[in-house]
Sequence to fold (529 residues):
Amino acid sequence: MPGLRDFQARFARDLWSREDCSSTSPLANQPGFSVYRNTVMAGCVDALAANYPTVHQLVGVDCFGDAATAFVRKFPPTSGVLAGYGQGFATFLSSFDAVAELEYLPGVAMLDRIWTESHFAADDTVLKPTDLARLTPEGLSRTRFVLHPAARWQTFETMPIYTLWQRHRDGLPLDVELDWRGESALVTRPAGAVAWTAIPHAVAVFLSSSASGKRFDQAMDDAATADGADDASWLPALIHAGAFARLEGRP
Amino acid sequence: MAGLTAGIGLKPEHYDDALRCRSAGVWFEVHAENYMIEGGPRRNWLEAVRREHPLSLHGVSLSLAGSEPVDPVAVAGLARLVRELEPALVSEHLAWSRFDGSYFPDLLPFPRTAEALKQICANVSRVQDAIGRSIAIENPSHYLVLEGHDFEEIEFLTHLARRTGCSLLLDINNVFVSARNTGTSAERYVDAFPADHVVEVHLAGHRPDPTHGQRLLIDSHDTAVAPEVWSLFERLVARAGPRPTLIERDAELPAFDVLMAERDQADRRLLLREAKVA
Fold:
């Protein structure tokens, strides 16, 4: 009788083998083995479908199943917490032949991913407009805007992927002529539920600079080079959306 | 566990119903891994339910019956939940689901050897030490006839309970499914199960395999508890007395009231036994 480790190694190998492959292991040839094989694969594919619902909706059950099965075989879960499973699915989709012509699909997957990350992120305080009330312009410049743990953002340089994703998420028909140019999106969790909005590219740059620890004036300088920089008129909307947890480094 | 009667497995679709539910002695069980997240609405919902009702944390991924020590990250995740939610019950399975860096979302079988017993005892002890309390170990469903067992399952579980101080969770649907699939007697299994160690009972539905039919039953948790499983439950309760009993449903989720009606059927059987003893 093999030891437990050897037994597991053989069982694990047989689990990932295809049903139509004849196995050298007598155990894998029992009818009941396919119950384990099917349950394991279904558990992984269902987790991906839960974490990437817009991709699932866009391509349909069969196509999603094919892509997900191929992903699972290449990148099986490493944790029992499947809420985090599927890191890298967007990149995988960009090289998966059956959906290669859907250029926007990896971007849609990225937005599904940041929605899921936002949904499960840590709780924290949410910065309120009144927290800025006593700041002088100079004080504001030297302040760091600390991002809320549930804030995520994504820039798409050439495609209106946010509009595509948002209309699916909100259950709206895609009956508008899409303006085929880049978009940036912000996902936050202001009042217990995940919310999303389009943002100018410059705001995404500001958020990335703030997240890297830069002060307000430095982050604004970085943003000035991007589209939609103008002034900081978008700041109240960002605060209202719950993008920040607090201010730091106030003089 | 005092005061726990029959409960149901809680899914997100039923959070609001569970919050409002006022049935005496009702409790709810969740899969611990679904709440091993940093924060957000899912955790908040569970905490709200916990403020109203007793809770049971049912682990599905610790891989206790593996050759590797339990994953310290997973154990720390469970310890945090136990600390924050103070559940009435904590349970896991006599199965493995992790090997060589991969996680398999299923409860996989193993030969019940002396070597396996030693490794599983060590894993159960690691978990119990980390969370500071005992856990209940559940008998799994079987779909294969495995060679090389040194112990019968009941004997194995009894050794495990004696050596580690863990308690046992008897899943009666698993008993029925396993007996059918491996050609053994479900009645004999239920009669021989060490009732003194049992702190929780699971009831669930099963289905015949689409290809092999009644010769291969699947522990699907997607349908009502079968009449044969209710009979086995009555048989256990008649011998061992009432235990906290859970209606498990993981798929094809019906309305909350439908699940509660099934839960009430279990509750009536528990109360009947209590009345007889009194």
